[in-house]
Structure formats: C-alpha cells, structure tokens
Amino acid sequence: MTTTTGMPPELVVEGVHTVAQGIRAVILAAPDGRALPPWSPGAHLDVELPNRLTRQYSLCGDPADPCRYRIAVKHEELSRGGSEYLHLFLRPGTRLRVAEPRTTFPEVTPPGTLFIAGGIGITAVLAMFLRDLRRGHEPTLLYAGRSRASMPFLDELAENAHVVIAASDEGERLDLPAWARSRPEGTEIVTCGPPRMVAEIEEVFDDERFGGVHVERFRAEPRSFADDRRFVAECARSGKEVTVPAGETLMDALLKQDIPLGTGCREGVCGSCEVKVLAGEPEHRDLLGASEGRMYPCVSRSLTETLVLDV
C-alpha cells in the first residue's frame, strides 16, 4: 500500500451491496490503494456522480480503516437523480470524484450523549455512537424505521441497554417525551432522520436543561423570508465587486465572476460553500446555524447594502 496525504483526484468503487430494503452500501477506495484522508465520525462526503450531480453522503464505515470509505444510499421514490443513479447504474470499477470528508457535527460528543436516528439517518450517527460505545462513554441510540428489513446496519448493533430499535410494523414507536424526561441534565442530542421526526426532536428537547440538539438534515425544508433585495459583495482577496440582484443567489453571482466556491447541496444543509464575512450583516437562510463571521452563499443573502467577503 502506498501512503500519502490528500485526496486522490478520483476514488474507485470497490464494492456495491444491499444492506436493507432499498438501501445499498458503496465502498470507495483509491485506485492505487493509497491511504485516504482520515475522517471523524459524523463526517460526510461530496460525491460528484457521472451524471454531473453532486450529492452528500454520510460516512458510515470504520474510521480506523485507512484505505476505504463506506457510504449508504436509499433509493428515493422521488429521486432527484442521485440515488437513482447509484442504485440502477453504479458498478464496481466506476471512478468518482470525491471531496475530502468534512463534518457539521461536533468532533467530540460527551459521555451520555443520546443519538436518535430515523431510517437512512443511521448513516450519519452510526460511527459516532460506536466510537462512544467503545470508549465507555455510555451513549444511547434510539433507532426508528418502518420495519427491521428496511433499517440498515442492524447486524452491527447489538440490542442492549445502549440500543433501542423501534420498527413501526411491529407496533413500536419512540416515546420522545418520555426519553426527554428520563435524560439527565446536560444531555446532548445528536440526530438525523426524516423532517417530521427531526422537527419533533427539536421541539421535545428544546429545553435549557439539555446540552443542545445537533442535527444533520437530508435536505432543506420550505421556509419563508422577506423578498430578495439587491446588494453588493466586495471580495477582499480577489479585489472584485459583485452585484447580486434580487432573484439570483450570492453563490451564482460569485461563480459568474470566477470566484471559487464549493458547490454541494445548494440548499444550505451541507456546508460546502462556507465563506468568511469580514464586514456587513448576512441574512442566514441556511439550516446549519452558521457561526459568527461565516455564511453559506448558496442560500443566504445580506441585510446590509454591502457584504465584504474573504474570497
């Protein structure tokens, strides 16, 4: 095996196999067998597909394996092209362009963290939960799905005091208010799942006695904002001044001026396009909760006439 640093230009599909009804796992490796960039549990990949779509998939394999990444993809009935390609056309030997792993979850989760996954959302939390379990941090995983047959990676989870499986076809449902009442003060929540489930979790655990709710979403939910207004983006590094008219995203306006940006989900959920704000007040329309001095230009705009960006 050749060891190196940095992501190879392309990764090769080493294997594709079914892990649950309608869900396939994909194993990716470097064509020359080199070590891949390390990743933290909770990280995801931007994968550029041969049909020119870029999609984000959570890494759900073993971070200790230096040469392979594993992702899992659900075949969505209303696919936007990503899951359909991966299920119907992807074959071993296919080469894919993949960006280095990154995460929007905390790099470290404290002892006693409550992980909650719905269906394919297990891919986002599996590696974090298993890491904390191995370290003796006493985490708990609540894992809900339509049926056990549709829930991937059950074979990697032993049902015990740390793991609760709720399959709706068996008449089981997570009693989230009861779990909230039973959690000690300071418990942190890490979750990924369908929008309705995530919304309920955010409501139930919206209490100052909890340490916070960390969420990864499948896609953005419809929300309302004031009408778009024209503004100007001053690009400090490139020296360009870019006018962003109403009806055009800041990302598109910058790309037209050859300002390099990450372009992943374009929905404010993946974080690939984050930029630093040097002056002005952004209007945050993302679902990531941008930290102070940062914004995501794929959806966010400006509340001031001018934004100064570190691009």
Secondary structure blueprint with pairings:
Blueprint: E1 11-20, E2 23-29, E3 44-48, E4 54-58, E5 68-74, H1 82-88, E6 95-98, E7 114-118, H2 122-134, E8 140-145, E9 163-167, H3 176-182, E10 188-192, H4 195-204, E11 212-216, E12 231-235, E13 241-244, H5 250-256, E14 275-279, E15 282-283, E16 294-295, E17 301-302, E18 306-309
Parallel strand pairs: 7-8, 7-10, 8-9, 10-11, 12-18
Antiparallel strand pairs: 1-2, 1-6, 2-5, 3-4, 3-6, 12-13, 14-16, 14-18, 15-17
Q: How much is the radius of gyration in Å?
A: 20 Å
Shape: globular
Low-confidence stretches: none
Count every beta strand, where a strand is a DSSP E run of 2 or more residues.
18
Give the SSE order as H and E letters.
EEEEEHEEHEEHEHEEEHEEEEE
* Strand-pairing-aware structural class: alpha/beta
Strand order of the largest sheet: 4-3-6-1-2-5
> DSSP helix count?
5
The span between the termini is 38 Å
Mean of residue pLDDT? 89
Assembly state: single chain
Strand content: 25-35%
Largest sheet: 6 strands, antiparallel
Tell me roughly what share of residues is in helical segments: 10-25%
